[in-house]
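Repro:
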Amino acid sequence: RRGCAAGASSVLRPATLTRIGALIIGETLAETKLPEGAFSILPCPGKVAEKLATDERIKLLSFTGSPSVGWSLKSKAGRKRVTLELGGNAAVVIDADTKGDAMNDAIERVIFGAFYQSGQSCIGVQRILIHESLFDAFSDKLVAATLALKKGDPKDEQTFIGPMITVDEAVRLETWIAAAVKAGGKLLCGGKRKGNLLDATLLENVPRDQDLVCKEAFGPVAVLSSFKDFNDALKEVNDSDYGLQAGIFTRDIHKAMRAWNELDVGGVIIGDVPSYRVDHMPYGGVKESGLGREGVKFAIEEMTEMRLMVIRSR
């Protein structure tokens, strides 16, 4: 739709498992006054979709998905513009002054960030860094809130934890959890799977080289760790191949500004989880998380060519 706003025709190639949703979007847009041919939907195999990356008639390629596929498409795109949103393992920092009502607020937001959409979000909370003075109290309350989440049928409005997109993805994440526990991590709650429904899961003290920490989980799992020094917490956030967004809970404006200056991410969310996003934000990441920015204004800028006219008068 942003391509249409920029005066360009757009072609949407949906992911293999989300074709129905894309076609519903098409049905909705068909009822609008978009010019004929302004927006097309092309469900097709990946090999066919690759031709969109090389076709000279297409001036911009925008891709959301895995880093391996995204960077491969970029290498094939030649001179056309490319924007990539390739996921992450987002972290949130809970500083020492997050007490009382502030702690309760942070727990509510972390629950949302880690488990909404069953954790299947590029900016879902995956790593939770908690100051050592708060660790026991925060983790106890977080586990209790996690256990209270209703799981099951997503058509039930009371359900918070629904199924993952496929059984294979749920099995993958179950395997990561088992590997993390075997490597020394402690399972605080969850970890059980039935079909493609995986319980909301929390672990602590998982080694940083485990897939559950250093890769994108993309499911209802989060890992807790403690820190003593705020600067060390920022270094741990940066200790990632990804850099999409990060969240910082602190009442200290100097620490907030330090996080803004030092974190190697596309967005720093102060007083909330990294999962916060509204459509007019310049949304995107660095490192393996991609390049370019989404958001109405910024996407339109990506999709238009700046031109200059100079008039000399005498």
